[in-house]
């Protein structure tokens, strides 16, 4: 879903072929979001079939460029203005905690410790990343990630206190 | 740049002798960003005060650029401190009767020397820490994040080689804390100043090149992100 609309987002500004889209995508996400090139080409075909983009034919290197259609622009605009619903309570970590607590499974303390280690590792990795990139918008994304980690860490500390 | 050799510090309380530092050895290179973490009362802040020459050790040495700090007189220590060391504190420690720019310029005037470049230096650093337009305000009228910016500018105005920071983000929310840490990180990179920061905040410690874990008056371990098992160690230490 995200890949589909990200491609439309690129084509909104400029006609592009698949390879260009892949390069733009990797730059935009600072190589943090693995993208299967095959998925880009198959998505472009689907977008063309659904009338959201149109093919401009092959260039001399055999690459097919695409242009966004009016229908594509509308779909993009709908997507970008629609809020994202995050799962509030449906998380694997919470399920483990509930099972361990309600069903008397052992291993809760080990889970909490190893989860804390993982969060600390992720905090240090994200902070290091934030420190070393210049892209202002991507820094804001990293800040979002750090805020989530802070909330997770607080929750683990709360659980540990209550144990 | 800084070397600490068998540093001991104790305080007398009535008939009791309280040992705060119990033989600390430490070496910090030029341009290094160090975080010191550890439980309250483990001696972190005392170590920072000895590094900055704000207090004297019971025994042992603090050498700054090869000069033995502990062997200097009070007056000589003040000279080294004014030239080579900057401080940032959790509660900012700004003078409420002075304006923002007067607070920032304070270290330049402290030794009575007048320099025609001082004004330019102040204007430049105000720009760098993002306080333009607030120059004439009293620090009391500023937010916590802004006050800490003033404090950073004051700590760096005399271009010290070492910046000592005691819980610089302790009074700030995550957003202001990240802004302050970004600033410190920028100065550390641009000016190659060594930063030694005492903190409880793992997010702040993440900005450092190396984290020193302090316990019962001694360094228990130094860890970097490259060390095997660092996260396990930090997690159990911070538990």
From TrEMBL, chain A:
InterPro entries: Tscrpt_reg_PadR_N, WH-like_DNA-bd_sf, WH_DNA-bd_sf. Transmembrane segments: none annotated. Residues 7-77 form the Transcription regulator PadR N-terminal domain. It holds the Pfam family PadR. Gene3D superfamilies: Winged helix-like DNA-binding domain superfamily/Winged helix DNA-binding domain. This is PadR family transcriptional regulator.
UniProtKB/TrEMBL annotation, chain B:
Keywords: ATP-binding, Nucleotide-binding, Transport. InterPro entries: AAA+_ATPase, ABC_transporter-like_ATP-bd, ABC_transporter-like_CS, MacB-like_ATP-bd, P-loop_NTPase. One of its GO terms (molecular function) is ATP binding. Residues 2-238 form the ABC transporter domain. The keyword Transcription regulation does not apply. The keyword S-adenosyl-L-methionine does not apply. It holds the Pfam family ABC_tran. GO terms for cellular component: membrane protein complex. Gene3D superfamilies: P-loop containing nucleotide triphosphate hydrolases. Signal peptide: none annotated. It comes from the Bacteria. PANTHER family: ALPHA-D-RIBOSE 1-METHYLPHOSPHONATE 5-TRIPHOSPHATE SYNTHASE SUBUNIT PHNL, LIPOPROTEIN-RELEASING SYSTEM ATP-BINDING PROTEIN LOLD. Belongs to the ABC transporter superfamily. This is ABC transporter ATP-binding protein. It comes from Cytobacillus horneckiae.
């Amino acid at each position: 879903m995200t890949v589909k609309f990200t491609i439309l987002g690129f084509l909104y500004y400029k006609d592009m072929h698949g390879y260009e889209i892949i390069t733009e995508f990797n730059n935009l996400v600072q190589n943090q979001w693995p993208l299967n090139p095959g998925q880009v080409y198959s998505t472009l075909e689907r977008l063309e079939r659904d009338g959201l983009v149109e093919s401009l034919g092959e260039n001399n290197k055999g690459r097919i460029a695409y242009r966004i259609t009016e229908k594509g622009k509308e779909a993009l605009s709908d997507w970008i203005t629609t809020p994202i619903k995050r799962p509030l309570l449906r998380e694997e970590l919470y399920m483990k905690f509930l099972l361990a607590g309600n069903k008397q499974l052992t291993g809760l303390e080990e889970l909490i410790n190893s989860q804390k280690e993982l969060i600390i590792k992720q905090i240090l990795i994200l902070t290091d990343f934030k420190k070393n990139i210049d892209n202002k918008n991507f820094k804001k994304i990293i800040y979002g990630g750090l805020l989530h980690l802070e909330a997770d860490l607080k929750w683990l500390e709360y659980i540990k206190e209550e144990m | 740049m800084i070397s600490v050799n068998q540093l001991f510090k104790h305080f007398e309380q009535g008939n009791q002798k309280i040992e705060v530092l119990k033989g600390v050895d430490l070496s910090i290179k030029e341009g290094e960003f160090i975080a010191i973490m550890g439980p309250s009362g483990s001696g972190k802040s005392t170590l920072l005060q000895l590094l900055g020459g704000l207090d004297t050790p019971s025994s042992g040495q603090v050498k700054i650029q090869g000069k033995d700090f502990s062997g200097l007189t009070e007056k000589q220590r003040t000279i080294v401190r004014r030239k080579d060391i900057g401080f940032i504190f959790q509660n900012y420690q700004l003078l409420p009767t002075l304006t923002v720019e007067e607070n920032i310029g304070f270290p330049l005037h402290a030794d009575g020397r007048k320099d025609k470049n001082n004004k330019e230096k102040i204007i430049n650093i105000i720009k760098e820490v993002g306080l333009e337009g607030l120059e004439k305000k009293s620090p009391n009228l500023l937010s916590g994040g802004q006050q800490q910016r003033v404090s950073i500018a004051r700590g760096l105005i005399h271009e010290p080689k070492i910046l000592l920071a005691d819980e610089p983000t302790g009074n700030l929310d995550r957003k202001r804390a990240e802004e302050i840490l970004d600033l410190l990180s920028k100065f550390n990179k641009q000016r190659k100043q060594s930063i030694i920061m005492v903190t409880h905040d793992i997010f702040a410690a993440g900005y450092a090149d190396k984290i020193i874990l302090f316990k019962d008056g001694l360094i228990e371990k130094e860890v970097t992100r490259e060390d095997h098992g660092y996260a396990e160690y930090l997690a159990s230490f911070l538990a």
